[in-house]
Amino acid sequence: MATPVITLANGIEIPQVGLGIFLMTNENETAWAIQHALKVGYRHFDTAAVYGNEAVLGRALKEAGIAREDLFLTSKVWNDKQGYETTKQAFNESLEKLQTDYLDLYLIHWHGPNVKETWCAIEELYAEGKVKAIGVSNFSINHLEAMKAYATVMPMINQVETHPYFPQDELRDYLKKEKIHHESWGPLSQGKTDLLLHPILTEIGKKYGKTPAQVVLRWHIDRGSIVIPKSVNPNRIHENFALFDFALTEDDMKAIAKLNIETRYGRDPENTGFEW
Ligand SMILES: NC(=O)c1ccc[n+]([C@@H]2O[C@H](COP(=O)([O-])OP(=O)(O)OC[C@H]3O[C@@H](n4cnc5c(N)ncnc54)[C@H](OP(=O)(O)O)[C@@H]3O)[C@@H](O)[C@H]2O)c1
Fold first, then answer.
1. Annotation: binding site
2. What is the Å distance from ligand 1's center to 191 Cα?
3. Quick one: which residues bind substrate (predicted)?
4. Shortest CA distance to 110 belongs to which of 82, 90, 133, 138?
5. Can you give the residue range of the structural domain that contains 91?
6. Residues 31, 240: contact at Cβ < 8 Å?
7. 51 an active-site residue?
8. What is the number of the ligand 1 atom nearest to the C-alpha of 240?
9. Edge-to-edge, what's the strand order for the sheet holding 131-137?
10. Into how many domains does the chain fold?
11. 212 CA from centroid of ligand 1 (Å)
């Protein structure tokens, strides 16, 4: 089973479905989930320095023996490493842990006070060919507009919280106009809500023999987003990848759009509450 690819503004292709590995902290469980995902067909993995599992991912991928060029690896610079030198240092640490000499995608995890220096370092890593595509995470329209004054290369991706309760319509319209690709984190609302029990999703799923989670993930895909659901459960890892043997109708999409309650469950990029 394969997943469609999305072509980013610089021509780099990213598999539309990847495995998110946030909150995978138990080493054995994480390694096992990654190995299982590889068997199912996942080739795209989303980690971050702050998740503390880059080394486990690196080891599991090495042991699986998949050719590096067949993998798509994303990592992110955490807040305490933002700045010019520290970002480069953090990037090299990520490479080492992941046992690779390049990343496919490197993101600024959250917008912070040293964003200009951080982005400058990332642009240099990109120019040196050490990372194939560069981007940001949790950036608002204001953050991206401000970037135009200091960036020589604009981000190719903005990874933000997105699910039917918080579909990010305004930001998505902006990103489309700016040719920045939208990537959904927390695509299933992180297990923090009753989303997957919603009767509208159950009803739609019944028509296709699919679970509410699959309906939600297909909704992300039909909107053209990149999606990185996390699971350590073998059935769910499989289920979250089995999304291409059905399609949602326009009516299904409209029904799901009605679930929008404009509610985020993660931090607000404009007011994160982080102490920098
Ligand atoms: N850039 C950022 O700031 C940021 C923030 C958060 C996340 N992320 C990235 O986005 C990825 C995904 O987001 P997330 O992990 O926070 O949340 P998520 O993928 O929306 O939800 C994960 C939760 O849903 C459960 N789940 C997964 N598949 C399911 C299914 N088919 N049916 C029912 N429950 C299911 C998982 O439990 P089990 O594991 O037990 O299946 C887990 O509790 C992360 O792993 C990370 O890579 C980025």
1. 109
2. 7
3. 109
4. 138
5. 5-192+224-231
6. no
7. yes
8. 31
9. 19-20, 44-46, 72-77, 103-108, 131-137, 157-161, 181-185, 226-227
10. 1
11. 14
Asked if residue 262 is part of any domain, the answer here is no
Identify the active-site residue in 51, 106, 126, 165: 51
Q: Is the pLDDT of residue 1 over 70?
A: no
| Residue 260, domain member (yes or no) | no
Token pair for residue 34?
């990654």
236 touches ligand 1 (CB under 6 Å): yes
The tokens for 100 are: 């690779």
Per-residue model confidence (pLDDT) at position 250: 98
Strand partners, 159: 137, 183
Q: How confident is the model at residue 2 (pLDDT cuts 50, 70, 90)?
A: confident
94 lines ligand 1 (CB under 6 A): no
User: CA quadruple 179, 132, 13, 112: dihedral positive or negative?
Assistant: negative
Q: Please give the structure tokens belonging to residue 270.
A: 């404009």
Q: Whose CA is nearest to atom 14 of ligand 1?
A: 186
Numbered residues of the known binding site for substrate: 109
- From the CA of 213, give the closest atom in ligand 1: 31
Whether residue 30 lies inside any domain: the answer is yes
For ligand 1, whether the C-beta of 159 sits within 6 Å is yes
Confidence of residue 267 (pLDDT cuts 50, 70, 90): very high
The b-or-e profile of 95-129 (16+ CB within 10 A means b, else e) is bebbebeebbbbbbbbbbebbbbbbbbbbebbeee
Ligand 1 mean position to 186 CA, how many Å? 5
CATH of the domain at 40: 3.20.20.100
In a domain? residue 216: no
CB of 183 shorter than 6 A to ligand 1: no
